[in-house]
Amino acid sequence: MTAHRIALSDLERGTPFANRHIGPDSGAQAKMLAQVGFGSLDELTAAAVPDAIKSAEALRLPGARGEAEVIAELRSLADRNQVLVPMIGLGYHGTFTPPVILRNVLENPAWYTAYTPYQPEISQGRLEALLNFQTMVADLTGLPTSGASLLDEGTAAAEAMALSRRVGKVKDGVFLVDADTLPQTVAVIGTRAEPTGVEVVVADLSAGIPEEIAERGVFGVLLQYPGASGAVRDLRPVIERAHELGAVVTVAADLLALTLLTPPGELGADIAVGTTQRFGVPMGFGGPHAGYMAVREQFARSLPGRLVGVSVDADGDKAYRLALQTREQHIRREKATSNICTAQVLLAVMAGMYAVHHGPEGLTTIARRAHRYATLLAAGLRAGGVEVVHGAYFDTVTARVPGRADTVLAAALERGINLRKADADTVGIACDETTTREHLAAVWAAFGVEADVEALDAATPDALPGELLRRSGFLAHPVFHQHRSETSMLRYLRRLADRDYALDRGMIPLGSCTMKLNATTEMEPVTWPEFGALHPFAPEEQAAGYLTLIRELEERLAEVTGYDKVSLQPNAGSQGELAGLLAVRAYHRANGDEQRTVCLIPSSAHGTNAASAVMAGMRVVVVRTGEDGEVDAADLHAKIEQYRDELAVLMVTYPSTHGVFEEHIGEICARVHEAGGQVYVDGANLNALVGLAKPGHFGGDVSHLNLHKTFCIPHGGGGPGVGPVGVRAHLAPYLPNHPLQPSAGPETGVGPVSAAPWGSAGILPISWAYVRLMGGEGLKKATQVAVLGANYVAKRLEPHYPVLYTGPNGLVAHECIIDLRPLTKATGVTVDDVAKRLIDYGFHAPTMSFPVAGTLMIEPTESEDLVELDRFCEAMIAIRAEIEKVGSGAWDKDDNPLRNAPHTAASVAGEWERPYSREEAVFPGGVQAADKYWPPVRRIDGAFGDRNLVCSCPPLDEYEG
User: Fold this and answer.
1) CATH number for the domain that contains residue 160
2) pTM higher than 0.90 for the full model?
3) In this structure, is residue 841 part of a structural domain?
4) Ramachandran category for residue 478: left, alpha or beta (phi over 0 → left; psi -120 to 50 → alpha)
5) E-assigned strands of 104-195?
6) Gene3D superfamilies of this UniProt entry (predicted)?
7) Average confidence (pLDDT) per 10 residues, the chain, 961 residues
8) d(CA 417, CA 406)
9) Distance between terminal CA atoms of the chain?
10) Would you call 674 exposed, middle or buried from its count of C-beta atoms within 10 A (0-12, 13-18, 19+)?
């Protein structure tokens, strides 16, 4: 017998990660290729992708590494970061994430792999969690209606500015910002104000609104509470004067401080904004964190972003859903009031659960402790002869040390503590949940002071003004009192997760949303303290590992896209769109072409495109889409000629929103360039291009990417996202920058579009790891299998449902649209019926009625294996047979499994008088009883929820007994 020998080098190499990321193995790929009619992946993509856009060269990326090797590399990068005690403040604070939340939310794929809850019947768990978040924010701010999270404090304040202008009595005038506002917030507001013609005035309002400003007219006022300096002052006189002037007043408030201080609503504020980061969410070098906004009742229907409300299901039982403007930017487009699409749901869930975990008493204790440390810190400094600037403060102390600020900061640094330099004479020190007595002693020593904590504690009163102490209650609902034991909290989190459908259960075939594998190896480093506990304004030398990771990821994304420079600052795809359009605007203005303000957008484009264009100060002109799904070339050429001298940019999604590779994209780009315009290629569908074609090479000047789609950051139930913007060299001088971290962008940049210098830096290790694990060849193969999967699904479903659009050789790109309109016309069965019936089969529905009403857009991604693809196709084929039963009259058109879907366990356990069996209802073909996913509610009445807007936590009767 001859011994079989395997070379050591082959054994060391192991299984490539790409084989784990890509669902279908080589045998499955061969079967799929045979179905589609090709012999190899290369043959398929050669036929599907137009020759004019194909990349001639392979991606120049480092070779793929194994999972253990990549974790070791990331560990090496993490070790280059220095995590010091964070006493910088400025809206970012040390916090302690309760381990039960860390393990069971942040590290739990049942929570982090879920999609935005647009299918509410299978999202009841996270919708309840978001309702808890909204209740927490509304209670603490003293305002009745809160949204389900915004991106960060800076952009929330900018949204408040836009809301104030929209709903206020004063239609002209200025937006007045108090000088003690967080500097990054002021900068983001400036970025957002300038393109829309809003004048921002920053002034010291501690003595009131200056008369010379009042005379100019004021449509909105922004106040910080407590101030960036830590000062706590009574805002009522300024608010009253602002209201006399007809202004809408926004207060940017620290939620932890509001457990002790009179809330903004009781002070008279109309809007409250801020961040929930210090409620158990790691700083992560700046994000992701959930911003918040709460408003007076009359503004509820104008609230930007998402709002969770209460409706009823088909049985009249309570059910949660997204209400009102859940996708207004997709529906109203250039008339949208905001371009928000991605929120920060996962982080909002964490913050809300932090409040559930601690309850009002626990939050108050944390706040009192932070305040007490600040009070003792100030007392010790005063006793040592150091001037403390403010007499009233919450957790931040400002000390004046003429000419010694640098010396004090250096001395604190030697003791492992980061303080904030306000100017050469002034130092800020912020206390938080993680502050200890040892930290106070180290800070005193840095100032050259010695003090006795015990003696100071016995003699020092608190520093909160008596007239501003909170007297109203908050978080009275039982949910904030029930789960004090870890057992109870664990079971609550599990109960909510079990009500949801996420990628850990099965395929989410959402077109345009790219719900692919979020590998555990990619996720692991996010919760390492070396990445999670770093303050975004820490000295750059303390973030050497982060900055290397950021630079490498920017360079690799530039290589993938063919652009010259990438900025990672935008913390959502919508913010990436805005950043890219602002760069185009700045470029034209620098060239003296201020008249170039027209943005051409195909009618099929993502609605955020149009909303972002308006926010960037542009005028949207819509270009028709042809019957084949491509841009109507004749209409485009006519619009280019009509607006030749005013043309700023064409925004085009590629592959198109209709799921096809348009053959003439190069010609389209050339025509726009010839007319003096720029080309914005929306990167939403980049998963069909990586390794095959580069937008920066086939005509694009600028693109945003979605790291939460193509590059494996999970969707988190609706966020976090990262929307980097890539540009060619001539636009690079106009990328975002940041006032507190000069290296975050060019000096000539347009200003920050996110509060933190590198946006949601805390989740960038995910995409860095994905690219490193896959290498250039792995990324290309992933794209090819994504295209194969979409074509396989299209071919299998085509005999049963028309495939609406195809490109060259009858092929689709990475997604396909099936047309239900003929079936609806013939049978009355709607796209909603099919979507809800898929729940009974154990699936999340594809994207409904976008970009074409009455259709389903299906994107399988490369991560779904053949078994799952076939299970989905067989479910859709079985549903087609069910539709036929309705059409033939075998099932009543108003009482059938499709119209009544989804079916809950309760609905089939009671009396049954349907014209179909219980088994047909809940165990249709292929559904195994042992593996059945049971939706918690029946079909939800959306219209009822919009007519009866309720924004409060779960009803009390749910907790009786």
Assistant:
1) 3.40.640.10
2) yes
3) no
4) alpha
5) 145-146, 174-178
6) Aspartate Aminotransferase, domain 1, Type I PLP-dependent aspartate aminotransferase-like (Major domain)
7) 64 80 98 98 96 94 96 98 98 98 98 95 96 96 94 97 94 96 98 96 97 97 98 98 98 98 98 98 98 95 88 93 64 64 92 98 98 98 98 98 98 98 97 98 97 95 97 96 97 98 97 95 97 97 98 98 98 95 98 97 84 93 84 92 97 91 91 97 96 97 96 96 97 98 97 98 98 98 98 98 92 96 97 98 94 94 98 98 97 97 95 95 92 96 69 47 35
8) 14
9) 74
10) exposed
Give me the domain span that covers residue 399.
Answer: 359-468
Residue 501 within any structural domain of the chain: no
Q: Is the Cβ–Cβ distance between 708 and 714 less than 8 Å?
A: yes
Strands of the sheet containing 598-602, edge to edge, are 565-567, 725-727, 702-704, 678-682, 647-653, 598-602, 619-623
| Cα R_g (the chain), whole angstroms | 28
Task: Quote the tokens at residue 690.
Answer: 């990586």
Residue 388 and residue 303 in one domain: no
- Both 718 and 580 in one domain: the answer is yes
Strands (E), 806-869: 816-819, 847-848, 855-858
Q: Which residues pair with 703 in a beta bridge?
A: 726
Whether 226 and 339 share a structural domain: yes
In 511-638, which ranges are E strands?
565-567, 598-602, 619-623
Number of domains observed in the structure of the chain: 3
Coil, strand or helix at 292? strand
Pick the last residue of a domain from 445, 468, 491.
Answer: 468
User: What's the CA gap between 176 and 222, in Å, rounded?
Assistant: 6
Tokens 């479903």 found at: 797
Indicate whether 799 belongs to any domain. Answer: no
Look up residue 163 and give its amino acid: L
